[in-house]
Design brief:
Largest sheet: 8 strands, mixed
Order of helices and strands: EEEEEEEHHEHEEEHEEHEHEEHEEEE
Number of helices: 7
Distance between the termini: 28 Å
Oligomer: single chain
Radius of gyration: 19 Å
Length: 364
C-alpha cells in the first residue's frame, strides 16, 4: 500500500493532515463509477481548493503498508487523516465510511432504479457492495477504532430485509458507531417514497433518531446531522437544528458527519463537471420527476429553509467549534475548506472498498 501526502489545512484551533493510500489529491476526485447516472470519472482534473489558510504540498511519500489490512480477502483502500485539536488529553482513532449502497434484498424489479443486477454497485473486482460490507465490519473490529462513523447511503434501497440485515451487521461492531441519514437508506424507488418512520429503519440509529445523533468522546463530540429532506433538497429539519445548536453552544470541538457536502470553492466546479451541477433532476417514469441536491448551500438549485440557513451560518462562523466536516454522496474523494477555513473531507464510495481512518491527536 502506498501513502502520499495530499494537503495540510491550518485553522485557528485545528489542523488536519491528510494522507491517501491509493486516494486522490485535494480537490481531485478518485476514479469512480456511478451505477445509476452513468457518471464516469477517470479524473484528470484537480479543482483548486486552496486558500490563504491552506497549504498544499507536491511532495509524495511511498511506503510499504505497516500491516496487512485484508480480512478474509477483503482489502480496503484507505485515506488517512490526522486531526490536531487544542486541549484534548489523548489520541483517538475513528473509521469513516460512506456510500456503500448495499442491497441484500432479492427483489428484482427496483422501479425507476432498474433491476437488481443493473443497479448493483460493485468494486473493481466485480464484487457486489453488500458482499464486501461484512469485510468492513471485520476490518473495524480488527483495527479497534474508538468509533465508526457511517456517512449515509450504506443501504441503496429500503426494504425490511435490507434494514434487518444491516442491523445484524451493525450489532457485530465492538465499538460505538454513528449512522448518518443518506438519501438512499430509507428510499423505496418503486413507490418513490421514504420510510423514515419504519421501525426497522430507525433501529439502524443507536438512539432511534435519524435527524441527529451525537457521540461524546469526552474531549470532543462526533455529531451526525441529517441534511437531506424527502423532497430531495439539502435541508435540515427544525429538530436537527435545535439538537445541533445545543451541542454547538457548549463550545466543545465537533467532528460533523453529514451526507450532502457543503458547497465550497473547487467542490462546486467538481459537482458541475461530474454531476451536471449542484442539483439534479431524474425522470422516474409516469411523468414523475425526482429532484436531488448534490451540494448544500446558496445557489445550489433549491430554496434553503430558515433552519438550513441558520445551520450553514453556524458552520461558517469564524468561531465555529466544528473542526472537521465529513461527507459523502458524490462517490468521489475530495478535500478542501469552507470559506471560514473549516476543513471538509468528502469520501469516495465504500462500495469501491474506499474508507477513511481518522486519527485525532493533541495539537503540538
Amino acid at each position: 500500500m502506498k501513502k502520499r501526502i495530499i494537503s495540510v489545512f491550518a485553522a485557528a484551533t485545528a489542523a488536519v493532515f491528510l494522507a491517501a493510500c491509493g486516494g486522490s489529491s485535494a480537490g481531485e476526485p478518485a476514479d469512480t463509477e456511478d451505477a445509476v447516472n452513468n457518471v464516469s470519472a477517470d479524473a484528470e482534473t484537480t479543482a483548486d481548493s486552496t486558500s490563504a489558510d491552506t497549504e498544499t504540498t507536491a511532495d509524495y511519500e511511498s511506503a510499504d503498508a505497516d500491516q496487512d489490512t485484508s480480512a478474509d480477502g477483503f482489502d480496503p483502500e484507505l485515506d488517512e487523516i490526522t486531526l490536531e485539536l487544542d486541549g484534548i488529553s489523548g489520541e483517538y482513532s475513528l473509521l469513516f465510511l460512506a456510500d456503500n449502497q448495499a442491497n441484500f434484498d432479492s427483489r428484482e424489479d427496483l422501479g425507476w432504479f432498474g433491476t437488481k443486477e443493473s443497479r448493483a454497485f460493485r468494486d473493481a473486482d466485480g464484487v457486489a457492495s453488500e458482499d464486501n460490507l461484512p469485510g468492513w465490519i471485520d476490518y473495524a473490529n480488527a483495527g479497534e477504532p474508538d468509533a465508526v462513523i457511517f456517512g449515509g447511503d450504506i443501504l441503496d434501497i429500503y426494504t425490511e430485509n435490507n434494514a434487518a440485515r444491516m442491523y445484524e451487521l451493525l450489532s457485530c461492531l465492538e465499538m460505538p458507531y454513528l449512522y448518518t441519514y443518506g438519501n438512499h437508506d430509507s428510499y423505496v424507488p418503486w413507490e418513490n417514497c421514504f420510510e423514515d418512520d419504519a421501525e426497522a429503519f430507525l433501529r439502524l440509529f443507536p438512539d432511534g433518531n435519524c435527524e441527529f445523533s451525537c457521540l461524546d468522546m469526552d474531549d470532543f463530540y462526533i455529531v451526525s446531522v441529517r441534511d437531506y429532506a424527502q423532497d430531495g433538497t439539502a435541508n435540515v429539519s427544525a429538530e436537527a437544528l435545535e439538537a445541533f445548536r445545543g451541542v454547538y453552544n457548549e463550545g466543545k470541538p465537533i467532528i460533523l458527519s453529514i451526507h450532502v457536502p457543503v458547497a465550497a470553492d473547487g467542490l462546486t466546479d467538481l459537482a458541475e463537471e461530474y454531476w451536471g451541477g449542484p442539483s439534479k433532476l431524474y425522470d422516474a417514469g409516469d411523468g414523475i420527476t425526482v429532484f436531488e441536491s448534490i451540494l448544500l448551500g446558496e445557489d445550489c438549485g433549491y430554496d434553503m429553509t430558515p433552519e438550513t440557513q441558520e445551520f450553514l451560518e453556524l458552520l461558517l462562523a469564524e468561531d465555529s467549534p466544528v473542526k472537521l466536516i465529513l461527507a459523502g454522496h458524490l462517490h468521489m474523494a475530495w478535500s478542501g475548506q469552507l470559506e471560514n477555513g473549516t476543513p471538509q473531507y468528502v469520501a469516495a464510495g465504500a462500495y469501491e472498498n474506499a474508507g477513511t481512518v481518522l486519527t485525532v491527536v493533541p495539537a503540538k
